[in-house]
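Lab notebook, page 48
Experiment: co-folding of the full assembly
Goal: obtain a model of how the components sit together before planning crosslinking
Operator: M.T.
Materials (sequences as entered):
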Amino acid sequence: MERKIYLDNMDVDEALKLFLDRTGYKQEIEEIHVIQSLGRVTADAVFAIYSSPNFNASAMDGIAVRAKDTYEASEVNPVIFKKGQYKYVDTGDPISEPYDAVIMIEDVVEVGEGNLKIISPVFPWQNVRPIGEDIVANEMIIPSNHIIGPVDIGALLSGGITTIKVYKKPRVGIIPTGTEIVEPGEKLKIGDIIESNSRMLEGLVKEYGGEPLRYSIVADDYELLKAAIKNALMENDIVVINAGSSAGSEDYTSKLVEDMGELIVHGVATKPGKPVVLGFIENKPVIGVPGYPVSAWVVFEIFAKPLINRWAGRQIKQEKKVEAVLSKRLVSSLRNKEFVRVKLGKVNNNLIATPLSRGAGVTMSLVRADGILEVPQTCEGYEAGEKVNINLLKDLEDIQNTIVSIGSHDLIMDIIGNMIHRKNSAYNLSSSHVGSMAGLMALRRGEAHMAPIHLLDEETGTYNIEYIKKYLANMDIALIKGVKRIQGIMTKKNNPKSIKGIEDLARDDIRFVNRQKGAGTRILTDYLLKNAGIDTEKINGYQREMTTHMAVAAAVASGSADVGVGVYSAAKAMDLNFIPIGEEEYDFAIPTAFLDEIMIKLFIEVIMSKDFKDYLNQMGGYGIENTGHIIKCN
Amino acid sequence: MERKIYLDNMDVDEALKLFLDRTGYKQEIEEIHVIQSLGRVTADAVFAIYSSPNFNASAMDGIAVRAKDTYEASEVNPVIFKKGQYKYVDTGDPISEPYDAVIMIEDVVEVGEGNLKIISPVFPWQNVRPIGEDIVANEMIIPSNHIIGPVDIGALLSGGITTIKVYKKPRVGIIPTGTEIVEPGEKLKIGDIIESNSRMLEGLVKEYGGEPLRYSIVADDYELLKAAIKNALMENDIVVINAGSSAGSEDYTSKLVEDMGELIVHGVATKPGKPVVLGFIENKPVIGVPGYPVSAWVVFEIFAKPLINRWAGRQIKQEKKVEAVLSKRLVSSLRNKEFVRVKLGKVNNNLIATPLSRGAGVTMSLVRADGILEVPQTCEGYEAGEKVNINLLKDLEDIQNTIVSIGSHDLIMDIIGNMIHRKNSAYNLSSSHVGSMAGLMALRRGEAHMAPIHLLDEETGTYNIEYIKKYLANMDIALIKGVKRIQGIMTKKNNPKSIKGIEDLARDDIRFVNRQKGAGTRILTDYLLKNAGIDTEKINGYQREMTTHMAVAAAVASGSADVGVGVYSAAKAMDLNFIPIGEEEYDFAIPTAFLDEIMIKLFIEVIMSKDFKDYLNQMGGYGIENTGHIIKCN
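Observation: model returned without errors.
Model output:
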């Protein structure tokens, strides 16, 4: 097959309009039991059959009387009701002729022989719920296109409604394709990719109001895919194919849509999400979703969400937006609209947005994201400190209850975050990994609550305090002592290239993988290389930078590098050989003013807890002598 | 049985603390498939088993090369790659020795015999997704106590997770009790009440994260109820009994809890919701929920929600609050904390809160509510115009897209609202029924977008315009012509008391039901009574006021009144006899500035539509000659 190399670059809004306008869907209606209607969408307004209450009812426990018999009653001149002149009633009992009012039981005194004394009058219909007080027959209870809630169910039943017309949920067939993808749980071979997108898409379909139907994996084969699509069209209102939507040699989706029906769009100006296919087969909408998970998510949010929402009778909601300050410069291409995942944090009453990884394959950027920054096609990006609008993915309340930590990476940050959330699920820890120095700079700009740092002062041989004194001289900063951790050289298990120390990094047969500039580990590495008199230009891979210990360890474990520097826990997790080169102090710099905040107290409580220390002892590679001690620096 | 007449009046927070502290629950954990985990709550943090990708993978369709072979390439000095020196790769294919970079297919030119020309260099690992780019083995994917979303499912599967530990949903048994309640769908006799609360509570339990189990109705009988509770305790973690929680002669719940276990609370200082029972039987929490629907809802929100949330591992969310201006005076008792349902509307950028019916039995006040105003026990109420905090029940966005109509009631308001929502489900019409004059006053105070009015000027014999000129002289107001409607005297079918006209209202054997002061219908009635020379004090029931046409019609239909004045549609809906006494003009007063708002345009579009006019013709009793015409008044 000839390769079509280039995709179109159609404007997103234009593509969406083309797609929705052409969609010849017919909303189907079904009648279901009210008691099973939670979360469904009404297809018609619903009018009450009965009034509620359906009779005049006592609003209290008490006695039913004729109001005019009570008019003379007063404390000095009580009225006696004889047996037969009144009737005991409970709340909800019918009130009918000759009675027209109720005296509450607390105001009634028994005086023997069934006679009762009352000392204050009631007016006609007092303490009586009139017929229709709640619902009047023929009154509208809920309108059409209304999502049915628990309270609605109560009102519908009270109004005599037992079945209700709702929109049928559109059925959405999801076909995972790809010769390289395997079902979750299978043993992975090199080149295998676990099929996970279809399960994410299933969840999204449910959230949009549709009914997903996921098929088994289909290999990249024109005929097999054609048969799968035909089958899915029979069983569904909408068909989704993931992936094969690009223009590679094994991307059949656009060709199939063209051959079997009508191709409307192939390629839109979004990043990620460009290689999308939109079309119709047998008049049913077909969406070809790209394979990268974030691309798949973006495409689904743009095209599948409004389609399914509308089909299900739901309102197409505007995203909730907030204004935030961008914490670092962001450059974006004029070729497309970009969807940048961001972490949000509220520090000193400013909402700060920090961009996460922009890779289309980085699912974790979506898992961690609090919001999406849409950079319009006509915009080249934003400067640090600029105000931007963010589409919220999480509740603002949760975001406000989040400790914003920006600085060096350590596995314990995830552990601490988990323990905080577990102790009080209202609070979270958001940890951005930019290295120690960048963490201090973030504190200086007021963008973080804390910076985890491990910065060696070469002159004094001490950690962290000198840096705070130098770089945050004008701020009140405390240092919460964290952990001592062992840094070392990581090599493959059994050390096949016999690396002994830092001096081996410059060997010709050694490929090194480095940490990014400003990272404490990088500073330590550079310090040791300088002491050993090694020219960094001689080191093969010195320019290859990773932003976490685990990424370095993974590179070594996979064989794409022979050696890297990092902490023991990372080496242990990836089953690597580890040669200690020093112990360093990983602490938390924090503006003194924040020490009184509940969530910071919770943080300190967690790191001083027995649970946390037990965990570290079990991990190994950490010293915990001073953990939680607070030192005022400036 | 002896009656215990008085309930305790325990402070709400104290009662909740007692109840939650005493709850000896044990969160149970179950392991389920990740693909079935949407919406469940993690019981532990989840760490990746595999890295994703699990190998170095091509990030593009292109050719795999050794980067150093490309360094010399430039436009003037292209490099030729011979067959064997490169390898075609698709996105996701593994990149391994000797290759360490990928050139994208667009940058490759075939020059024959399998040779390829390239004109720009790539650096090592360019266009290669390194192992662990997305997820690194052993990294935390999601923390504990996290609600699993679609994106999380994708990440979990990618990280090699197939099963996951989640909190078991607490099972909540719901026992509806009452000798007077009947299952929905049964034919109603006088005194019967449709059982609807348990179905509302079922829905709430689901929303809180629990698993409801609803039992059949149990009569008010000590032994039957005891057996039902015993059975429910075996099958559930929490038992809810509705109702019988008060202190009436048939209220057994508190007694049963006392006899079978431990009674903690009976009666709290809330309105509605006072008669609540909290206790423990076999160490399982038991909640006795009052019978009035709004009381049941309030009690469930206060006590069941935090209990179930916590049990399910979910965060106990703070209500979302907004500040709003109260549109009318609200007096509240110092005996309890009151939960007042309010409609919210945004008019002139002010959020306006209008209290709805405060009756504990008025489910529709919950159906219609946009928020809850909590009036603390120590507060006697608020003045009109005071700023108050409202707990939101709906999205602020939906509230902002709502036309706030305050004024006279007509059935067509529900119909118009429904048609607006149907045309564009982003918009709603909220209609408060306070009478024509109060509607004009609301416009004057800037609390409404429009006031539906039908105000007869006795001097000119015209409707509405003179009132606008007089009462809103300083505002730019337009009058959108609505409908002409026939007002008349409503009596029971076949007019058993032979009522002929307005002069019969003062007859001794006639019980009248009136509309509230300021209502157009009341003004018309008073005008006709004055003309007929009738003293209103002679009229039996003149003081009995209803706020809607349908309520008046229902009172007549039920026999609690013999006669009322209202519109034809109400009489028809309740199958009453109708004696026309005049035609009136029901129009919409609206500040001119609002005419340009999208939702007001939508309103005008709807009332001018054929659908709407067809509907009115079918209803009967309306004239539609000028509907939608706009008259500038001031």
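Interpretation: The two ends of chain A are 69 Å apart (CA to CA).
Next step: discuss with group before ordering constructs.
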